[in-house]
Amino acid sequence: MTQNQERIQRFTSDLYKAFKLSHLEIEDESHLHAGHAGAASGGGHFRIHLVAPEFNGLNSVARHRAVYAALKDHIPAEIHALSIHAYAPHEIAPQESE
Question: What pTM was estimated for this model as a whole?
Fold first, then answer.
């Protein structure tokens, strides 16, 4: 298991502790930022897609703050940058059966 895979496991655990998630996807995008100033710090770049009822009634800024609060122990040592896509369950269209 790579260092970033281990990080993602820790992030996943903390996000499930903070939210009643019906969907979570964390993508390591660090390779897209190789050579950037922030890459030298050791913290990675991650894209997070999550769906949780706790986001009902919250605007985008409040949702981002909630995610940052859940991951605060990992910033900046393990996380240099996050791209957050946080949704309430009613904002996600059901997938059609194939």
Answer: 0.84
Strand partners, 5: none
Nearest alpha-carbon partner for 59 in 17, 22, 25, 87: 87
Domains of the chain with bracketed CATH: 3-91 (3.30.300.90)
Q: How much is the mean pLDDT over the chain?
A: 88
Name residue, tokens 């996807």: 25
Name the β-bridge partners of 81. 45
Looking at beta carbons, which pairs linking 3-6 to residues 24 or more positions away fall under 8 Å? 4/28, 4/30, 4/44
Whole-number Å distance between alpha carbons of 14 and 19: 9
